[in-house]
Amino acid sequence: MRKFTLVLMLLLLPTLAMAQGTVTVSSVIGQVEWKSANAAKFAPLPAATRTVRVGDQIHTGAGANLILTLPDSSYMVVSENSTITIQDFWAGSNVRSLVDVMMGKVRFYIQKIGGRPNPYRVQTPTALIAVRGTIFDVATYDPKSTEVSCIEGRVAVETIGVPNREVILDPGMKTMANAGSAPVVPVALNESLMKNRVIQVVRKDGEDPIMNGKDMPSLDRVVRDNDRMNRTADPLRATGSTTTTDTQRAKPSGTLKYPPQ
Fold it and tell me: What does pTM read for this prediction?
């Protein structure tokens, strides 16, 4: 019983610590601005500031970056020209929201508990990213588009307002979440993402073009006949050709019987 209690306390320790609402400022390079939840505008981040709290906003200038560390030793590296908001990541849910990446790029390094990544979530203007992996990038340079790259582990991505269309990223893959549409088909990190990688199939019940040259084939006809009707020189569609159910049709005349006797 004592052992079980100790294990439970270890599992709950990060959650209890995060309930204090603080994130540690571990490293600051270059010009970094900060706006507390109660402030009206940004101001230079004081050198003595070691923590930021829920609702605080941080902006990194050109050539600047910032490292923020969570109570469980997970951390994030905020790249230059980025703006983030610290979120209420401990309240009311098993999944805790870390930050809202409003603009720019952030790399996340998530610690594991019991062999599994902590159940964090990251938000952008267009995407919700559920942490199933340990290292991933979130980049948004357009308010209507977010790119997510998985470096290690797995990451789940969905578009805000488009439920039940989650994309799972494995290591070495990336996707893009555009406002109003499901995340695009994942590609390798060294490939270019296409915003509209969607194949639209429109069903038409008109006549077949091979038969009369007037209309597109219907979807059910294409599926049923595979690509036969897409070939202009199909011997089975030649003038005067016929079909039959006679099993003797293909046997060599006078030599074999089909089926074998």
Answer: 0.67
